[in-house]
Amino acid sequence: MVPAPAARRMAAPRQRLALGLLCMLLAASAAAGEGGHGVPRSAKRAAVASAVAGSGAGNRTAAAPATVGKRDEHAQGRKRAAAGPAAGRKRDDAGKPRRRGDRAPAPAPGGAVAPLGNTTTPAGSKLWLPALPLKTWGRYIVDQRGQRVKLRCVAWSGGQDVWMVPGGLHRQKLWKIASMITWGGFNCVRLHFSVEMVVRSVKGSAWVQQKAVAANPELYNKGPLEVLDAVIKALSDVGLMVIIDNHTSDAMWCCSGFDYNGLWYTDKWSEADWLHAWDVIARRYAWTPAVIGVGLRNEPRPTIVGGAARSPMWGAGGPGLDLALALEKAGGAVLSHRQSYLVFASGITAARDLIAARLRPLVLRAGWPHGAHVNNQLVYEAHEYFMWYGPLANAMQYEPFKLAMDASWGWVVLTNTAPVWLGEFGVQPWDVHGGWWQSMKRYIKERDLDWSYWLLDGDQGPSRNMNARDDLGLLNHSWDGWEHPEMIEELKQI
């Protein structure tokens, strides 16, 4: 062992040398401008470490720079990895610690999941995608690390309408709408399409009117699917997940009992057209991780086909009415392109009734009917609205409401069968203190549901009135701010 006085004498020249090197680096950094971008960060850290270590014992000064340098190499490796999937990133662009509030520890073998933290994001911040793709674990959706991912989505309508593109692109920049969604505390977006939009796009007979994307000149002369590509990219760039939903067959506003679109086929668009549309969509986004799943058909309900009234059934009624069979066919078309899509399946009676799924659960395959079974990708979807209760909505009491929901579709999560995604629910802002909304909020929290709020849009769209707002829409008419900020706060509570 070197005596202490001798060690200090040996360390002094090394310390002076390291300090001199540090000064040279700092001078070079200043000359390079921009805060030292011309000097590798690892070299700076090594110099600092050498200078600090030089003041210690002489038999440890040589090892310190190498150790610090190795750590820096690992850090740089992590940063390089972060340039790929966003899930690998640990810090945001401002250097602040990454928020993980929308993810919880993995479910325990018994199915317990730790409580979720706050999922709101500060204004101007960027979300981080989880470790994709997602899958199911009993009643929960989890990422590739087995951590809970709770979907807090908002519906961005328009892709199913006559303009065939998401709304608001005529008034506001795409990137700004995407940013507004993150500021609202959402982590995913439900986008819609019609069978007509996809089939006509493939045939080259669909085009986007310039007025539909007037605020986004880069989208001029694009087809509907190309605009959808751009929208999905803008959403994924700010860390939002996407669920693509088949909302209608015809390009139109939805929904009613007299719109002829209650089944997965119409007089104009056949079941084969519907399956073809899903084949196109699933293949197109098979390599887009942010597209986490697909909603096979929106609100199956009684309708008129061939001049006759028809009503979908679950596990009965034959090929023309058996919704469960039709959903399995479409699921096979989707999963044949990527088995890691989450498949969202709605029940009958406008997605309010999953009772028959107790006896006839869906079976997913990668290609119907003989493809391999695909497990842990099925999510059941339910919808619930205040207007379905008429004047009784605001007088709703929680206990009977809870019993009705549990009997219709809540049993799916209570029995740990699969996740349930409340794919649509909404209320007029002036009714937030009413019985239905308070019961709905409480039920979502008590059952710990994944959800998607209806509606983001700041106007009624081209099929109704472009100059009027939708009472359920969150954005203002300019699509650049919240019409009712109190609704955003209401949603952040769940």
TrEMBL record:
**Record-level GO BP terms:** polysaccharide catabolic process
Please state what the protein is called. Answer: Glycoside hydrolase
Q: Where do the record's region annotations for Disordered lie?
A: 52-119
Write out the entry's keywords from A to Z: Glycosidase, Hydrolase, Signal
Q: Name one GO molecular function term.
A: hydrolase activity, hydrolyzing O-glycosyl compounds
Ranges for domain Glycoside hydrolase family come to 163-457
User: What family classification does the UniProt entry report for this protein?
Assistant: Belongs to the glycosyl hydrolase 5 (cellulase A) family.
- Do you know which InterPro entries this protein is assigned to? GH, Glyco_hydro_5
Q: Does the keyword Zinc apply?
A: no
Gene3D superfamilies recorded for this chain?
Glycosidases
Q: Which Pfam families match?
A: Cellulase
| Source organism superkingdom | Eukaryota
